[in-house]
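Quick one: C-alpha coordinates for this chain, please?
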Amino acid sequence: MSGGQRASERVVVVGAGVVGASVACHLARLGHDDVVVFDARSRTELPGSTGLAPGFVGQLSASRELSALARDSVAQYASLPGGKAYWQVGCLEVATGPERLERAHRDVEHGAGLGLEARVLDAAEAVGMAPALVDAERTLGALFVPSDGAVDPVLLTRLLVEEAERAGARFRFKTHVGALEAERGRVVGVRAGTDGEPVAAGRVVLAAGIWGPVLAAGAGVRLPMTAVQHPYLYTRELPGLDDTFTDTPIVRYPDHSVYTRRHGRRYGLGSYAHAPLPLTPSAGLSSAELPFPEDNFGAALDRATSLVPAFRTAPRGRRLNGVFAMTPDELPLVGPAAGVPGLWFAEASWVTHAGGVGHQLARMLLDEGDLLVDPARLAPDRFATWSERRVQDAALAHYQGIYETH
Protein backbone atom coordinates (compact mmCIF):
# COMPACT_ATOMS: atom_id res chain seq x y z
CA MET A 1 0.00 0.00 0.00
CA SER A 2 1.43 3.42 -0.99
CA GLY A 3 2.04 6.10 1.58
CA GLY A 4 5.38 5.52 3.30
CA GLN A 5 6.16 5.95 6.96
CA ARG A 6 3.86 8.90 7.52
CA ALA A 7 0.71 7.20 6.24
CA SER A 8 -0.63 6.95 9.78
CA GLU A 9 -0.75 10.77 9.89
CA ARG A 10 -2.46 11.18 6.53
CA VAL A 11 -6.09 12.27 6.30
CA VAL A 12 -7.80 11.23 3.08
CA VAL A 13 -11.00 13.11 2.20
CA VAL A 14 -13.32 11.47 -0.32
CA GLY A 15 -15.27 14.15 -2.19
CA ALA A 16 -14.24 17.66 -3.26
CA GLY A 17 -17.63 19.31 -3.26
CA VAL A 18 -18.24 22.21 -0.93
CA VAL A 19 -18.17 20.01 2.21
CA GLY A 20 -15.03 18.06 1.34
CA ALA A 21 -13.27 21.25 0.25
CA SER A 22 -14.24 22.86 3.55
CA VAL A 23 -12.89 19.92 5.57
CA ALA A 24 -9.59 20.02 3.68
CA CYS A 25 -9.33 23.79 3.99
CA HIS A 26 -9.80 23.72 7.75
CA LEU A 27 -7.44 20.81 8.31
CA ALA A 28 -4.71 22.55 6.33
CA ARG A 29 -5.35 25.90 7.98
CA LEU A 30 -5.03 24.26 11.39
CA GLY A 31 -1.59 23.01 10.41
CA HIS A 32 -2.16 19.41 9.35
CA ASP A 33 0.36 18.90 6.57
CA ASP A 34 -0.80 15.61 5.03
CA VAL A 35 -4.31 16.04 3.61
CA VAL A 36 -5.24 14.36 0.32
CA VAL A 37 -8.63 14.85 -1.33
CA PHE A 38 -9.96 12.52 -4.04
CA ASP A 39 -12.76 13.32 -6.46
CA ALA A 40 -13.90 11.48 -9.56
CA ARG A 41 -14.72 14.69 -11.44
CA SER A 42 -12.39 17.14 -13.13
CA ARG A 43 -11.34 20.30 -11.34
CA THR A 44 -13.91 22.40 -13.19
CA GLU A 45 -16.92 20.07 -12.83
CA LEU A 46 -19.36 19.70 -9.96
CA PRO A 47 -21.74 16.86 -10.80
CA GLY A 48 -22.82 16.36 -7.19
CA SER A 49 -25.35 18.27 -5.12
CA THR A 50 -22.99 21.26 -4.76
CA GLY A 51 -23.15 22.02 -8.48
CA LEU A 52 -26.96 22.10 -8.39
CA ALA A 53 -27.42 24.00 -5.13
CA PRO A 54 -29.34 27.31 -5.41
CA GLY A 55 -26.95 28.99 -2.97
CA PHE A 56 -29.32 30.22 -0.25
CA VAL A 57 -27.63 30.83 3.10
CA GLY A 58 -30.09 31.35 5.95
CA GLN A 59 -28.85 31.39 9.54
CA LEU A 60 -32.06 31.53 11.55
CA SER A 61 -33.19 28.07 12.57
CA ALA A 62 -35.22 26.41 15.27
CA SER A 63 -32.13 24.26 15.76
CA ARG A 64 -29.32 25.98 17.65
CA GLU A 65 -26.89 23.56 16.05
CA LEU A 66 -27.87 24.46 12.49
CA SER A 67 -27.78 28.13 13.33
CA ALA A 68 -24.28 27.83 14.82
CA LEU A 69 -23.00 25.96 11.77
CA ALA A 70 -24.59 28.46 9.38
CA ARG A 71 -23.24 31.49 11.23
CA ASP A 72 -19.74 30.03 11.18
CA SER A 73 -20.14 29.29 7.47
CA VAL A 74 -21.16 32.88 6.72
CA ALA A 75 -18.12 34.22 8.56
CA GLN A 76 -15.85 31.95 6.51
CA TYR A 77 -17.48 32.56 3.14
CA ALA A 78 -17.38 36.32 3.60
CA SER A 79 -13.66 36.25 4.40
CA LEU A 80 -12.38 33.96 1.64
CA PRO A 81 -9.66 35.57 -0.51
CA GLY A 82 -9.56 35.38 -4.26
CA GLY A 83 -13.05 36.43 -5.22
CA LYS A 84 -16.52 37.33 -4.04
CA ALA A 85 -18.11 34.20 -2.59
CA TYR A 86 -20.85 35.61 -0.39
CA TRP A 87 -23.37 38.36 -1.04
CA GLN A 88 -24.88 39.66 2.18
CA VAL A 89 -28.20 40.76 0.74
CA GLY A 90 -30.42 39.60 3.58
CA CYS A 91 -33.39 37.28 3.60
CA LEU A 92 -37.10 38.09 3.56
CA GLU A 93 -39.50 35.51 4.97
CA VAL A 94 -42.81 36.68 3.58
CA ALA A 95 -45.97 36.43 5.68
CA THR A 96 -49.08 35.83 3.60
CA GLY A 97 -51.26 35.13 6.62
CA PRO A 98 -51.68 36.58 10.12
CA GLU A 99 -50.23 33.54 11.90
CA ARG A 100 -46.98 33.79 9.96
CA LEU A 101 -46.78 37.51 10.74
CA GLU A 102 -47.21 36.77 14.45
CA ARG A 103 -44.51 34.14 14.20
CA ALA A 104 -42.20 36.68 12.56
CA HIS A 105 -42.32 38.77 15.74
CA ARG A 106 -41.46 35.69 17.82
CA ASP A 107 -38.62 34.89 15.45
CA VAL A 108 -37.09 38.30 16.12
CA GLU A 109 -36.77 37.31 19.78
CA HIS A 110 -35.53 33.84 18.87
CA GLY A 111 -32.91 35.34 16.58
CA ALA A 112 -31.71 37.66 19.31
CA GLY A 113 -31.17 34.62 21.52
CA LEU A 114 -28.97 33.14 18.79
CA GLY A 115 -27.06 36.38 18.30
CA LEU A 116 -28.79 37.17 15.01
CA GLU A 117 -30.33 40.52 14.18
CA ALA A 118 -33.81 40.30 12.66
CA ARG A 119 -36.74 42.67 12.32
CA VAL A 120 -40.28 42.67 11.02
CA LEU A 121 -41.11 44.80 7.97
CA ASP A 122 -44.51 45.96 6.87
CA ALA A 123 -45.83 44.94 3.46
CA ALA A 124 -44.68 48.06 1.64
CA GLU A 125 -41.13 47.74 2.99
CA ALA A 126 -40.96 44.09 1.99
CA VAL A 127 -42.23 44.74 -1.53
CA GLY A 128 -39.86 47.68 -1.90
CA MET A 129 -36.86 45.49 -1.14
CA ALA A 130 -37.65 42.90 -3.81
CA PRO A 131 -40.59 43.92 -6.01
CA ALA A 132 -39.85 41.21 -8.58
CA LEU A 133 -40.03 38.49 -5.94
CA VAL A 134 -42.52 39.67 -3.30
CA ASP A 135 -46.23 39.39 -4.11
CA ALA A 136 -47.66 42.83 -3.25
CA GLU A 137 -51.26 41.61 -3.19
CA ARG A 138 -50.73 38.75 -0.76
CA THR A 139 -47.94 40.06 1.50
CA LEU A 140 -48.88 41.22 5.00
CA GLY A 141 -45.29 41.81 6.09
CA ALA A 142 -42.01 39.94 6.35
CA LEU A 143 -39.25 38.87 8.68
CA PHE A 144 -35.94 40.34 7.54
CA VAL A 145 -32.55 38.87 8.52
CA PRO A 146 -29.98 41.34 7.15
CA SER A 147 -26.87 39.15 7.58
CA ASP A 148 -28.27 36.28 5.48
CA GLY A 149 -27.31 36.06 1.85
CA ALA A 150 -26.42 33.96 -1.14
CA VAL A 151 -23.42 32.24 -2.69
CA ASP A 152 -22.40 30.91 -6.05
CA PRO A 153 -21.72 27.31 -4.92
CA VAL A 154 -19.34 26.59 -7.81
CA LEU A 155 -17.25 29.69 -7.15
CA LEU A 156 -17.36 29.07 -3.39
CA THR A 157 -16.06 25.53 -3.81
CA ARG A 158 -13.28 26.68 -6.13
CA LEU A 159 -12.16 29.28 -3.61
CA LEU A 160 -12.17 26.72 -0.79
CA VAL A 161 -10.10 24.34 -2.90
CA GLU A 162 -7.61 27.08 -3.74
CA GLU A 163 -7.37 28.15 -0.10
CA ALA A 164 -6.83 24.52 0.97
CA GLU A 165 -4.09 24.09 -1.64
CA ARG A 166 -2.33 27.26 -0.52
CA ALA A 167 -2.31 25.84 2.99
CA GLY A 168 -0.80 22.55 1.79
CA ALA A 169 -3.69 20.19 1.00
CA ARG A 170 -3.41 18.09 -2.16
CA PHE A 171 -6.31 17.39 -4.52
CA ARG A 172 -6.45 14.46 -6.93
CA PHE A 173 -9.24 15.08 -9.43
CA LYS A 174 -10.39 12.52 -12.00
CA THR A 175 -9.57 9.87 -9.41
CA HIS A 176 -12.49 7.69 -8.41
CA VAL A 177 -12.48 6.04 -4.99
CA GLY A 178 -13.96 2.61 -5.51
CA ALA A 179 -13.74 1.23 -1.98
CA LEU A 180 -12.39 1.70 1.50
CA GLU A 181 -9.42 -0.37 2.66
CA ALA A 182 -9.81 -2.10 6.02
CA GLU A 183 -7.57 -4.28 8.18
CA ARG A 184 -8.77 -6.04 11.33
CA GLY A 185 -11.88 -3.87 11.52
CA ARG A 186 -10.06 -0.56 11.01
CA VAL A 187 -10.22 1.61 7.89
CA VAL A 188 -6.63 2.16 6.79
CA GLY A 189 -7.04 3.83 3.41
CA VAL A 190 -8.88 3.81 0.10
CA ARG A 191 -8.61 2.20 -3.30
CA ALA A 192 -8.44 4.95 -5.89
CA GLY A 193 -8.14 5.38 -9.63
CA THR A 194 -8.91 3.07 -12.53
CA ASP A 195 -6.46 0.45 -11.21
CA GLY A 196 -7.72 0.58 -7.63
CA GLU A 197 -4.42 1.90 -6.31
CA PRO A 198 -4.26 1.41 -2.52
CA VAL A 199 -3.62 4.70 -0.72
CA ALA A 200 -2.85 4.41 2.98
CA ALA A 201 -4.27 6.81 5.54
CA GLY A 202 -4.60 7.13 9.28
CA ARG A 203 -8.12 8.48 8.85
CA VAL A 204 -10.55 8.58 5.94
CA VAL A 205 -13.31 11.20 5.80
CA LEU A 206 -16.34 10.54 3.62
CA ALA A 207 -17.69 13.81 2.27
CA ALA A 208 -19.18 12.19 -0.80
CA GLY A 209 -22.74 13.47 -0.45
CA ILE A 210 -25.38 11.08 -1.75
CA TRP A 211 -22.65 8.55 -2.62
CA GLY A 212 -21.43 8.40 1.00
CA PRO A 213 -23.72 5.52 2.05
CA VAL A 214 -22.48 3.40 -0.88
CA LEU A 215 -18.86 3.62 0.28
CA ALA A 216 -19.75 3.35 3.97
CA ALA A 217 -21.67 0.13 3.34
CA GLY A 218 -18.46 -1.45 2.09
CA ALA A 219 -17.04 -1.02 5.59
CA GLY A 220 -20.20 -2.39 7.19
CA VAL A 221 -21.51 1.02 8.26
CA ARG A 222 -25.01 2.30 7.59
CA LEU A 223 -25.33 6.04 7.13
CA PRO A 224 -28.77 7.19 8.37
CA MET A 225 -29.61 9.56 5.53
CA THR A 226 -32.11 9.61 2.70
CA ALA A 227 -31.49 10.99 -0.76
CA VAL A 228 -34.44 13.01 -2.02
CA GLN A 229 -35.17 14.65 -5.37
CA HIS A 230 -35.97 18.36 -5.55
CA PRO A 231 -37.14 20.75 -8.31
CA TYR A 232 -35.61 24.12 -9.15
CA LEU A 233 -36.55 26.47 -11.99
CA TYR A 234 -34.74 29.40 -13.64
CA THR A 235 -36.08 32.12 -15.86
CA ARG A 236 -34.19 32.88 -19.02
CA GLU A 237 -31.78 35.81 -18.93
CA LEU A 238 -33.81 39.00 -18.68
CA PRO A 239 -33.23 42.50 -20.02
CA GLY A 240 -32.50 45.05 -17.34
CA LEU A 241 -30.57 42.61 -15.14
CA ASP A 242 -26.78 42.41 -15.07
CA ASP A 243 -24.35 39.83 -13.78
CA THR A 244 -24.03 41.38 -10.34
CA PHE A 245 -26.03 40.28 -7.33
CA THR A 246 -25.91 43.02 -4.76
CA ASP A 247 -29.36 44.52 -4.49
CA THR A 248 -32.00 41.80 -4.11
CA PRO A 249 -32.63 39.81 -0.91
CA ILE A 250 -33.30 36.12 -1.05
CA VAL A 251 -37.01 35.53 -0.48
CA ARG A 252 -38.86 32.67 1.21
CA TYR A 253 -42.58 31.97 1.38
CA PRO A 254 -42.71 29.64 4.40
CA ASP A 255 -46.46 29.04 4.27
CA HIS A 256 -46.14 27.90 0.65
CA SER A 257 -42.80 26.02 0.87
CA VAL A 258 -41.38 28.24 -1.87
CA TYR A 259 -38.08 30.11 -2.05
CA THR A 260 -36.66 32.39 -4.73
CA ARG A 261 -33.63 34.55 -5.52
CA ARG A 262 -31.86 36.44 -8.23
CA HIS A 263 -29.00 34.72 -10.08
CA GLY A 264 -27.38 37.57 -11.97
CA ARG A 265 -29.43 37.95 -15.18
CA ARG A 266 -31.95 35.29 -14.15
CA TYR A 267 -34.29 34.50 -11.29
CA GLY A 268 -34.51 31.09 -9.68
CA LEU A 269 -37.23 29.37 -7.69
CA GLY A 270 -37.66 26.10 -5.79
CA SER A 271 -40.56 24.38 -4.06
CA TYR A 272 -41.00 21.70 -1.40
CA ALA A 273 -44.79 21.62 -1.87
CA HIS A 274 -44.99 18.16 -3.42
CA ALA A 275 -44.89 14.55 -2.31
CA PRO A 276 -41.28 13.62 -1.43
CA LEU A 277 -39.50 11.57 -4.06
CA PRO A 278 -36.69 9.48 -2.51
CA LEU A 279 -33.83 7.88 -4.41
CA THR A 280 -31.46 5.05 -3.57
CA PRO A 281 -28.03 6.07 -4.96
CA SER A 282 -25.71 3.47 -6.44
CA ALA A 283 -22.04 3.41 -7.34
CA GLY A 284 -23.05 3.73 -11.00
CA LEU A 285 -24.91 7.02 -10.50
CA SER A 286 -22.72 9.66 -12.15
CA SER A 287 -24.63 12.85 -11.36
CA ALA A 288 -26.91 14.29 -8.68
CA GLU A 289 -29.13 15.68 -11.45
CA LEU A 290 -31.84 13.35 -12.75
CA PRO A 291 -34.43 13.69 -15.51
CA PHE A 292 -37.22 16.07 -14.54
CA PRO A 293 -40.38 14.17 -13.50
CA GLU A 294 -43.20 16.38 -14.72
CA ASP A 295 -45.89 14.32 -12.99
CA ASN A 296 -44.20 14.78 -9.61
CA PHE A 297 -42.96 18.37 -9.78
CA GLY A 298 -44.91 20.20 -12.50
CA ALA A 299 -47.92 21.23 -10.43
CA ALA A 300 -45.76 22.40 -7.51
CA LEU A 301 -43.72 24.66 -9.77
CA ASP A 302 -46.85 26.01 -11.43
CA ARG A 303 -48.22 27.03 -8.02
CA ALA A 304 -44.89 28.53 -7.04
CA THR A 305 -44.54 30.58 -10.22
CA SER A 306 -48.01 32.03 -9.75
CA LEU A 307 -46.86 33.32 -6.35
CA VAL A 308 -43.67 35.10 -7.43
CA PRO A 309 -44.22 38.18 -9.66
CA ALA A 310 -41.13 37.77 -11.85
CA PHE A 311 -42.17 34.27 -12.86
CA ARG A 312 -45.64 35.24 -14.01
CA THR A 313 -44.36 36.90 -17.17
CA ALA A 314 -40.71 35.92 -17.62
CA PRO A 315 -39.88 33.20 -20.13
CA ARG A 316 -38.90 30.02 -18.36
CA GLY A 317 -35.42 28.63 -18.68
CA ARG A 318 -33.69 25.59 -17.26
CA ARG A 319 -35.52 23.44 -14.78
CA LEU A 320 -33.67 20.78 -12.91
CA ASN A 321 -34.21 17.82 -10.63
CA GLY A 322 -31.41 17.73 -8.09
CA VAL A 323 -30.78 15.12 -5.41
CA PHE A 324 -29.56 15.91 -1.90
CA ALA A 325 -29.52 14.13 1.45
CA MET A 326 -31.77 14.50 4.47
CA THR A 327 -31.47 13.00 7.96
CA PRO A 328 -34.25 12.16 10.44
CA ASP A 329 -33.53 15.31 12.49
CA GLU A 330 -32.22 17.52 9.66
CA LEU A 331 -28.80 17.78 11.34
CA PRO A 332 -25.72 16.64 9.38
CA LEU A 333 -23.69 13.52 10.14
CA VAL A 334 -20.32 14.72 11.46
CA GLY A 335 -17.79 12.65 13.36
CA PRO A 336 -16.28 9.16 13.65
CA ALA A 337 -17.97 5.94 12.65
CA ALA A 338 -18.95 3.96 15.73
CA GLY A 339 -17.07 0.67 15.94
CA VAL A 340 -14.94 1.29 12.84
CA PRO A 341 -11.75 3.16 13.78
CA GLY A 342 -10.23 5.31 11.08
CA LEU A 343 -13.51 6.18 9.35
CA TRP A 344 -15.08 9.63 9.74
CA PHE A 345 -18.03 11.39 8.15
CA ALA A 346 -18.97 14.87 6.93
CA GLU A 347 -22.25 13.95 5.30
CA ALA A 348 -25.80 15.24 4.78
CA SER A 349 -24.72 18.88 4.87
CA TRP A 350 -25.96 21.70 2.67
CA VAL A 351 -23.99 24.68 1.36
CA THR A 352 -25.58 26.70 4.17
CA HIS A 353 -23.70 24.70 6.80
CA ALA A 354 -20.69 23.33 4.90
CA GLY A 355 -18.20 25.85 6.25
CA GLY A 356 -19.19 25.13 9.83
CA VAL A 357 -19.23 21.37 9.25
CA GLY A 358 -15.68 21.48 7.88
CA HIS A 359 -14.58 23.58 10.85
CA GLN A 360 -16.25 21.24 13.36
CA LEU A 361 -14.84 18.05 11.85
CA ALA A 362 -11.30 19.41 11.42
CA ARG A 363 -11.18 20.38 15.09
CA MET A 364 -12.49 16.94 16.08
CA LEU A 365 -9.90 15.18 13.92
CA LEU A 366 -7.05 17.24 15.35
CA ASP A 367 -8.45 17.28 18.89
CA GLU A 368 -8.38 21.08 18.93
CA GLY A 369 -11.37 21.57 21.25
CA ASP A 370 -13.62 24.64 21.13
CA LEU A 371 -16.17 22.91 18.93
CA LEU A 372 -19.08 24.81 17.40
CA VAL A 373 -21.62 22.16 18.36
CA ASP A 374 -21.87 19.38 20.93
CA PRO A 375 -20.47 16.44 18.88
CA ALA A 376 -23.10 14.07 20.26
CA ARG A 377 -25.79 16.10 18.48
CA LEU A 378 -24.16 15.36 15.11
CA ALA A 379 -22.86 11.85 15.84
CA PRO A 380 -23.35 9.59 12.80
CA ASP A 381 -24.56 6.72 15.00
CA ARG A 382 -27.31 8.63 16.78
CA PHE A 383 -29.95 6.65 14.89
CA ALA A 384 -28.26 3.27 15.31
CA THR A 385 -31.39 1.65 16.76
CA TRP A 386 -33.69 2.96 14.02
CA SER A 387 -34.82 0.78 11.13
CA GLU A 388 -34.10 1.87 7.56
CA ARG A 389 -37.81 2.52 7.04
CA ARG A 390 -38.03 4.71 10.14
CA VAL A 391 -34.97 6.71 9.06
CA GLN A 392 -36.48 7.34 5.63
CA ASP A 393 -39.95 8.20 6.89
CA ALA A 394 -38.59 10.74 9.40
CA ALA A 395 -36.22 12.30 6.85
CA LEU A 396 -38.97 12.66 4.25
CA ALA A 397 -41.28 14.20 6.87
CA HIS A 398 -38.61 16.84 7.46
CA TYR A 399 -38.44 17.46 3.72
CA GLN A 400 -42.17 18.22 3.64
CA GLY A 401 -42.02 20.34 6.77
CA ILE A 402 -38.74 22.03 5.99
CA TYR A 403 -40.05 25.56 6.50
CA GLU A 404 -41.37 24.74 9.92
CA THR A 405 -37.85 24.13 11.23
CA HIS A 406 -36.24 27.29 9.85
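The chain has two domains: 5-51+154-225+329-404, 88-147+226-326.
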